[in-house]
Every structure is written in C-alpha cells, then in structure tokens.
Amino acid sequence: MAAKIQPSDHTLVYQFATQRQKWAFIRKYWPIYLISIPGIIYFVIFKYIPLFGSVIAFQNYNIFKGITGSPWVGLDNFKRIFQYAEFIPILKNTILIGLYDLVFAFPVPIILALLLNELRVMAYKRIVQTVVYMPHFLSWVIVGGIVVGVLSPSTGLVNKIIGLFGVDPIYFLGENTYIRSILISSGVWKDSGWGTIIYLAAIAGINPDLYEAAQMDGASRFRQVWSITIPSILPTIVILFLLHIGNFLDFGFERVFVFLNPLNSENGEIIDTYVYRAGLVDRQYSYTTAIGLFKSVVGLILIMTSNMFSKKVTGQGLY
C-alpha cells in the first residue's frame, strides 16, 4: 500500500519549493543585489549604528566618561523638554512653519508640472524647466546670500521697487513679521523645481490613448487635466505628501540658520536651530538628544497615522 502523505509533509514540500523559487530569483537578479550592497552598508554605518548613541538621552552624558561611565537619569531629560519655558515657543514656531510649508509650498510643484505639461513648444518648455530646476543645486548658504542681497534695506531690489511708490525701506530680515514668509518663499524658489521634475515624470507615464479618447468626446484641456492627469499622478502626490508629513518637524537646520539673527529669532527659531544652540554651543548633549528622539517619535506617529488614513481614503500608501 502507498504511504499516506501527512499534512506536515505538504508543508515541508511547499516550504522547499518556495525556498527554491527565492534562490532562483536571487540568482537571476544577482547584479541588482550586488549594486545595492554599498547603499545598504551606507545606511548601516551612518543611519543604524548611530541610533545606539541615542541612549545618552536617558543619561547625564559626560564626554570624558563616555556612554558607559555617564550616570543614568531615566526620563528626566524628556520632562525637562516641556518644563523649559523657551522650548514651547520654539515648538510652536516649528509647527507653524511646517504647516505653512505644507499648505503653500507643497502644491507649487504640482501646479508647475501641470502648467509645463500644457506647453506645446518643446524648446521653451525645456528652458523653463531648466530655469526652475537650477536653484535646487545651490546650497542654502548661497540662497541665503541671494535673499539677503535682494531684501537689503539699502541696495536690495525689493526696497528699490517699493521705494518708487514712496514707501520707506524695510529691513525684512530684522523683523519677526516677515521671517516665516521669507523661509517659505525661499524654499519654494529653491526646491519647487525638484518636485516639478518628479511630477512631470509621472505625467509622462500616462497612457496617451486616454487623452485621445477624451478629445474625441469633446473634453476641454482643463477637463482632461482634472479627469485624467490629476487622478493619474495621484499615487505620486500621495507618496510625496506622506513623506512630507513624516518630515513635518524636520524643516531643516541650514534653511533657517542662514536667515536667523537676534532680531527675528522670536518667530524664526525652530527645533533644529535650537538643538544646535543648546547641544553644540551650550554642550547639553543629553537634553538635545532627548529632543531629537521626541521629534523622531512624533514624525513616526504622523507618518503612520497619515499612511493609514490615506489607504482608507485613496487606497494609496507608503506600505
């Protein structure tokens, strides 16, 4: 009589077949795995290993005693974050600037991509695309110098223009009123071209037959954009939006530091510049590490929550 196959035997056969398929897949695409090794090593060395240093957030860290010799203080550094009166206004600035950047700066690349896609003269389209994209390669130090020069109260172009209407020169970088607008607008000028390239690439992948069918049905250009282009690039918009949400509190140190001075710091200082001042200048390493962990946890919660909400509403998400 033939031996009766047990359910456990079926499981072993299935696992063996699955393992063979995995190894066959790896052997087939081994060059891709090979070229990914340097990237993996980079993230392990510069991203994952430094995470172990976050333990000093629970210590009263002393650079001479090191991690092993510094005394443990538990959650005292985290309690200090919200007990320190100076931190709350800085957190408010960070949230407001991040919100302004999300509301005003995030849609700009989408609008630019849609407008550029409507241009029919390819030479003009490429020139405009290049001009918009070029500021992305400039460092924030150079951008800061350009903005300072343009907004200078004595020689700046903006003050010369408003002077033609009889308005007295304004020291834009010397007043709290303007610093947030300067930060957002300079970021739009520098980085909107990069986002535009991404959206143009997504638009280029749309099936042209959809537009031809819409034209045959008599749809206008605006109707085609609204009913075909935007829904087609919606997955790209959602992914970039979720990534933006994840970096909501990470506005960028250089982006703010080049414009910051004692006259505008009340509305301009954010968590990143505060960590630099308190951590590196004042050497409060444990305290600022606790702030960094707080910011990372908030970012993780935001991206997980927004990803879950996005998958329920649009069906699209990061994972």
From TrEMBL:
Membrane topology: Multi-pass membrane protein
Intracellular or extracellular location(s): Cell membrane; Membrane
Keywords recorded for this protein, A-Z: Membrane, Transmembrane, Transmembrane helix, Transport
Main localization of the protein described in the UniProt heading: membrane
Transmembrane segments: 30-49, 95-119, 131-151, 225-245, 285-304
Record bears the keyword Flavoprotein: no
This protein's name: ABC transporter permease
Keyword Transmembrane: yes
Superkingdom of origin: Bacteria
Family assignment from sequence similarity: Belongs to the binding-protein-dependent transport system permease family.
UniProt cross-references to Pfam families, sorted A to Z: BPD_transp_1
CDD domains for the chain: TM_PBP2
Species this chain originates from: Paenibacillus aestuarii
PROSITE patterns listed in its UniProt record: ABC_TM1 (PS50928)
Record Gene3D superfamilies: MetI-like
Positions of the ABC transmembrane type-1 domain: 91-306
